[in-house]
C-alpha cells in the first residue's frame, strides 16, 4: 500500500483522516566514478513506483547539507544552489512520473568528489539515500589544476607583475614589481583614475581577454590577504565590496578564516594553512580556480561568464608582510604548453602510462605548473609538449 492512514481526531459526527504517502528512496549500491572534466550521473528512484512530479526532489552535499540541485513545484530552483555548481547541473526527469530521476553534473571537478544526499519529500513524508561520487585522477600526485581534461589543451603560464599606477598610496612595491606590502605612511602619488584611493589593493599589469593562465603568489604567514582577478573596468575609488557581481572573483584570509568573496562569504575547507596560492583562469570556460600549493588541494572555483579584460588582483591588507608573485621557471618563459592526455594508468583512468619518467631538472622547481603535472616536458623547436606520466 502506498499510503498510511492516520486518524488525527474523532468528533461526534465526523473523522479527520490524513493520508501519508509511504515510499523509500534507493540509490546505487556502489560509488559512481567520473573523470575530471567529464560528466557524472547520479541516479535515484522511489519504491514503490509512483510519480514524483509534484514532490520536492533534491541533491545535497552530505557533509554540510549545501544545495547542489533542487526541484520544487514542478520546476528547478536555483536560488539556493551552491555557486560552484551553478551552470553545471541538470535534473534528468524523463521518467519522473515513475519516480526515477538522475542528476547530471558536467565539467566534473576535484571538489565534486564527495558524498551526496538524494531526497524526495511529499507533504510530511521525507526519505533519502546516500550516493558517493569518486573523481578519478585528482588525488595524490596527479591532482593537477587542469580539470578540463581534453585530448589536448593549451596552457599559458604568465609572468605577472604589479601595475604601480593602480596601487593604493599606502602600498609599497618592490623595484621588480613582484612584491607588495602595506607601508606606514601615505606616499605622495598622483590621484590618477586607475589608482585605488581607499582600499589597500593593486592590480597586475597584465590583462587577459582569453586563454588559460596560471600564476602563484607567496602569502607566507600573512594574517590577512586577498587574491584573485577582477574586471579592468572596476571602480577604483571609495570603498569596495568584493563579489562577482561587482567584477571581483577573489578569495581571502580574514579573521583567521578563509573565504571565497561571495555574498555572503563562502567558508573554505582549509586543513593545511597555505603558504602559497595558485590561481588558474580559464577565460572561455568562465572559471577562476584557486589552489593551496602547500598541500596541493583545490580551494574554490568561481563559475561565471567573462567579457572584456580581466586583471590579477592583490591586497596585502594592513600588514607589512609582503605578497610575493612567484617567478616562472626559465624553461617555461615565453611560450605556450600543449598538455596532452592519453592512454591509461592503473588506478588513474585517462593518464598516460607509456611516457618516460619525469625529467627531474624540470619538475623539481617550486613552481606548481610542472610540480602538479609530474609529467615529462619534451622540448621542441618552438613549443614544449607536456605529457602526463603515471
Give your account of this protein's structure.
It is a single chain. The protein is mainly beta and 390 residues long. Helices cover 3% and strands 41% of the residues. The chain is built from two helices and 29 strands. It has helices spanning 360-363, 368-373, and strands at residues 3-10, 15-21, 24-26, 32-35, 40-47, 56-61, 66-72, 75-77, 89-92, 100-105, 115-122, 125-136, 152-157, 171-173, 179-182, 202-203, 212-218, 225-231, 248-254, 257-260, 266-267, 276-282, 287-292, 297-303, 310-315, 323-325, 337-340, 375-378, 385-388. Strands 13, 14, 15, 17, 22, 23, 24, 26, 27, 28 and 29 form an eleven-stranded mixed β-sheet that branches. A six-stranded mixed β-sheet has the order 4-12-11-6-7-8, with no helix packed on it. A hairpin with a 2-residue loop joins strand 7 (66-72) and strand 8 (75-77). The N and C termini lie far apart (54 Å). Mean pLDDT is 79; it is low at 1-8, 140-144, 146-154 and 337-390. It is found in: Membrane. It comes from Chrysemys picta bellii. One of its GO terms (cellular component) is membrane.
Amino acid at each position: 500500500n502506498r499510503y498510511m492512514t492516520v486518524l488525527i481526531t474523532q468528533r461526534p459526527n465526523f473523522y479527520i483522516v490524513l493520508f501519508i504517502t509511504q515510499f523509500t528512496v534507493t540509490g546505487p549500491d556502489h560509488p559512481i566514478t567520473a573523470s575530471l572534466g567529464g560528466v557524472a550521473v547520479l541516479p535515484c528512484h522511489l519504491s514503490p513506483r509512483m510519480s514524483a512530479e509534484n514532490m520536492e526532489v533534491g541533491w545535497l552535499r552530505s557533509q554540510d547539507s549545501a544545495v547542489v540541485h533542487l526541484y520544487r513545484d514542478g520546476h528547478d530552483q536555483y536560488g539556493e544552489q551552491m555557486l560552484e555548481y551553478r551552470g553545471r547541473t541538470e535534473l534528468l526527469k524523463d521518467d519522473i512520473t515513475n519516480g526515477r530521476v538522475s542528476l547530471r553534473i558536467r565539467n566534473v571537478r576535484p571538489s565534486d568528489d564527495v558524498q551526496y544526499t538524494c531526497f524526495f519529500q511529499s507533504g510530511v513524508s521525507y526519505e533519502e539515500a546516500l550516493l558517493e561520487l569518486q573523481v578519478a585522477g585528482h588525488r595524490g600526485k596527479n591532482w593537477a589544476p587542469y580539470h578540463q581534461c581534453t585530448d589536448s589543451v593549451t596552457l599559458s603560464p604568465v609572468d605577472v607583475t604589479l601595475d604601480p599606477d593602480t596601487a593604493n598610496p599606502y602600498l609599497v612595491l618592490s623595484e621588480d614589481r613582484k612584491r607588495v606590502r602595506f607601508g606606514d605612511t601615505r606616499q605622495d602619488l598622483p590621484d590618477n583614475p586607475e589608482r585605488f584611493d581607499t582600499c589597500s589593493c593593486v592590480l597586475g599589469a597584465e590583462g587577459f581577454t582569453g586563454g588559460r593562465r596560471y600564476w602563484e603568489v607567496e602569502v607566507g604567514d600573512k594574517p590577512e590577504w586577498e587574491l584573485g582577478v577582477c574586471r579592468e573596468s572596476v571602480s577604483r575609488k571609495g570603498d569596495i565590496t568584493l563579489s562577482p557581481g561587482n567584477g571581483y572573483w577573489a578569495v581571502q584570509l580574514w579573521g583567521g578564516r578563509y573565504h571565497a568573496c561571495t555574498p555572503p562569504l563562502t567558508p573554505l575547507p582549509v586543513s593545511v594553512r597555505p603558504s602559497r596560492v595558485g590561481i588558474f583562469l580559464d577565460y572561455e570556460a568562465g572559471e577562476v580556480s584557486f589552489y593551496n600549493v602547500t598541500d596541493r588541494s583545490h580551494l574554490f572555483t568561481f563559475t561565471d561568464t567573462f567579457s572584456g579584460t580581466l586583471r590579477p588582483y592583490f591586497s596585502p591588507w594592513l600588514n607589512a608582510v609582503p605578497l610575493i608573485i612567484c617567478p616562472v621557471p626559465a624553461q617555461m618563459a615565453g611560450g605556450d604548453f600543449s598538455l596532452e592526455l592519453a592512454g591509461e594508468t592503473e588506478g588513474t583512468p585517462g593518464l598516460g602510462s607509456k611516457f618516460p619518467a619525469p625529467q627531474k631538472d624540470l619538475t623539481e622547481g617550486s613552481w606548481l605548473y610542472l610540480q602538479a603535472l609530474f609529467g615529462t616536458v619534451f622540448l621542441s623547436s618552438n613549443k614544449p609538449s607536456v605529457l602526463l606520466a603515471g
